[in-house]
C-alpha cells in the first residue's frame, strides 16, 4: 500500500492545495479549544434531534450516535464535474444492465457476463423476468461509494443500487456546519445540498405509472421503528412532505395500491421503499414477512404502481458483478469508463483463487454479498490466525469471495483528541434518476475512519461522517 494522497496537502505534504487554502488559513487562526467546544456542541445537537443508528447483532444493540467531524472535506468545482460525469455514465449503464438481465439478456448471449453469475445469484429475482417498469428506470436512487487515490483518480468501491442509506447525514451535517461555523461558510462559495429533497421528490413523481392522470401520490415505505435506518426514513418523509407508511398502512385491491387514511382509501402511485425485496410482498417472497404488502407485486406487474428502487436491482450491486462494470459500461454505452474500478480477483476463477491464496497477507478479501464492512479480511492488518481461517473459507467456497489490493484511501484533515490530523475518507454521492435524466446534488456523504491508520469507514465499525463541500466555480 503506497503513501495516501492527502486531500489538503497532496502526496508530498508540502503545499496546501487551492481548494483548501481558506480552510488552512482559518485553522491557523482558530484556537484548538474552540474547535473542541464546537465538536461537543455538534454532538449535543445530534443527540437532541435524535440522529442515531443501531448495530445489529451486538449484545447491547443500542442506538448510537455516528461521530461527526467538524472539519469539512472540500472539493473544487472542476473535481466535482469530473466525478459527476463518471457517476452519470455509471448509473446509466447500471439501469441498462438491469433492464437487459430481466429482458433480452444480450449481455449474457454476448458472453460478457457468465450466465451462472446471474441465475445463481440470490439477488436475481425471476419474478422480474419480462416485467417492464415505468420509463425503464430501475435504480432511481443510487449510492455510489467513491475513493480517491491521487489528484486526478477516483475509484468506485461499491455500487449501492437497492436501498442506499446515509443521505439524512449529508443534509444534517450541512445544517450543523452552517449553524456552528458561519464564519467559515462566509469565506467559501459552497454548492448547496439542501435542495436534495426537492430533487428526490421531483424524480419520484416523474416516474409515476403512465396511467397516473393526476398529481402522483408518493409514499415512503419503512420496515418500522426497529430498523437501524428508521431515523432517516422519518426524516426524509418529513422533508419530502410525503406519508411515512408501514406495510399495514397499505392494501391492494384490483391490482391498485391504496393507503388507509381517516378520509378513506387513497390511491398510491409511487412507493419509495426502504424495505428489502425479500419482505416486500408475502404472497411472492417470504410468506412470513409482516413488513410488506400482500398483492403489491401484482399491482406492480400490472403497471399501476412504481417501486423505487425496482425489485431485483440487487443483481447490479453484487461485488462479483461489480468486477464486470468496466465491460458493462463499454457493452451498453460504447464508451470507456470515466471512473475506474478497483482491480478485482474473482475467487470463483481458479487462477484468480490461486493468486489470492498466495497473497492473502497483502489483499482485502470480501464476501460477494457482504455489506457494512463485515465478513472481510484486511490482509496487511490481519493476524496469522485470521489469515489462515480465511484461507480455509476461501478453499471451501471460493465463489463467495472477491479480493482487491489494499488501496490507500485519501486522507482529509480531521478533528481528533490530539488536535487536527489526517484520517482516511471515502465518499457516497447520491445519484437520482428520473424521467428527465440523472441529477446529483454536489457533494454527498463523506465517511471517515476515526482510528489512526484505519481504512474502515463504516459507521457500524466505528467510522464517522463529515460535511462535503463542493466549491462553486
UniProtKB/TrEMBL annotation:
InterPro entries: ATP-dep_Glu-Cys_Ligase-2, CP_ATPgrasp_2, UCP005522. It comes from the Bacteria. It comes from Undibacter mobilis. Residues 72-449 form the Circularly permuted ATP-grasp type domain. It holds the Pfam family CP_ATPgrasp_2. This is Circularly permuted type 2 ATP-grasp protein. SUPFAM superfamilies: Glutathione synthetase ATP-binding domain-like (SSF56059).
Amino acid at each position: 500500500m503506497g503513501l495516501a494522497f492527502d486531500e489538503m496537502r497532496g502526496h508530498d505534504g508540502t503545499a496546501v492545495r487551492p481548494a483548501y487554502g481558506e480552510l488552512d488559513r482559518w485553522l491557523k487562526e482558530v484556537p484548538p479549544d474552540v474547535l473542541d467546544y464546537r465538536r461537543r456542541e455538534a454532538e449535543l445537537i445530534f443527540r437532541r434531534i435524535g440522529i442515531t443508528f443501531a448495530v445489529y447483532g451486538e449484545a447491547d444493540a443500542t442506538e448510537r450516535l455516528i461521530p461527526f467531524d467538524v472539519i469539512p472535506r472540500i472539493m473544487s468545482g472542476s473535481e466535482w464535474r469530473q466525478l459527476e460525469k463518471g457517476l452519470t455514465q455509471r448509473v446509466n449503464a447500471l439501469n441498462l444492465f438491469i433492464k437487459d438481465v430481466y429482458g433480452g439478456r444480450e449481455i449474457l448471449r454476448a458472453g460478457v457476463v457468465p450466465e451462472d453469475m446471474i441465475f445463481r445469484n440470490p439477488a436475481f429475482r425471476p419474478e422480474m423476468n419480462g416485467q417492464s417498469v415505468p420509463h425503464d428506470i430501475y435504480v432511481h436512487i443510487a449510492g455510489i461509494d467513491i475513493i480517491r487515490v491521487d489528484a486526478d483518480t477516483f475509484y468506485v468501491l461499491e455500487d449501492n443500487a437497492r436501498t442506499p442509506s446515509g443521505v439524512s447525514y449529508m443534509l444534517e451535517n450541512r445544517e450543523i456546519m452552517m449553524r456552528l461555523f458561519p464564519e467559515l461558510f462566509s469565506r467559501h462559495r459552497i454548492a448547496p445540498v439542501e435542495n436534495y429533497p426537492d430533487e428526490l421528490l421531483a424524480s419520484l413523481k416523474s416516474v409515476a405509472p403512465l396511467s397516473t392522470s393526476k398529481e402522483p401520490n408518493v409514499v415512503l415505505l419503512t420496515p418500522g421503528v426497529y430498523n437501524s435506518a428508521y431515523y432517516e426514513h422519518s426524516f426524509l418523509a418529513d422533508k419530502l412532505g410525503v406519508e411515512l407508511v408501514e406495510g399495514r398502512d397499505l392494501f391492494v385491491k384490483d391490482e391498485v395500491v391504496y393507503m388507509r387514511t381517516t378520509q378513506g382509501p387513497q390511491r398510491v402511485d409511487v412507493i419509495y421503499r426502504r424495505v428489502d425485496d425479500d419482505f416486500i410482498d408475502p404472497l411472492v417472497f417470504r410468506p412470513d414477512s409482516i413488513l410488506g404488502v400482500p398483492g403489491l407485486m401484482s399491482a406492480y406487474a400490472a403497471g399501476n404502481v412504481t417501486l423505487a428502487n425496482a425489485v431485483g436491482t440487487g443483481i447490479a450491486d453484487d461485488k462479483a458483478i461489480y468486477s464486470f462494470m468496466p465491460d458493462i459500461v463499454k457493452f451498453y454505452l460504447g464508451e470507456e469508463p470515466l471512473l475506474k474500478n478497483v482491480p478485482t480477483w474473482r475467487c470463483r476463477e481458479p487462477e484468480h483463487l490461486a493468486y489470492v491464496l498466495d497473497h492473502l497477507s497483502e489483499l482485502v478479501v470480501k464476501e460477494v454479498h457482504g455489506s457494512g464492512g463485515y465478513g472481510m479480511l484486511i490482509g496487511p492488518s490481519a493476524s496469522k490466525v485470521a489469515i489462515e481461517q480465511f484461507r480455509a473459507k476461501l478453499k471451501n467456497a471460493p465463489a463467495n469471495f472477491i479480493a482487491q489490493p489494499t488501496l490507500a484511501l485519501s486522507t482529509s484533515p480531521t478533528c481528533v483528541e490530539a488536535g487536527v490530523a489526517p484520517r482516511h475518507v471515502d465518499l457516497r454521492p447520491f445519484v437520482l434518476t428520473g424521467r428527465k435524466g440523472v441529477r446529483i446534488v454536489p457533494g454527498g456523504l463523506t465517511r471517515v475512519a476515526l482510528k489512526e491508520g484505519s481504512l474502515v469507514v463504516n459507521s457500524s465499525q466505528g467510522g464517522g461522517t463529515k460535511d462535503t463541500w463542493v466549491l462553486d466555480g
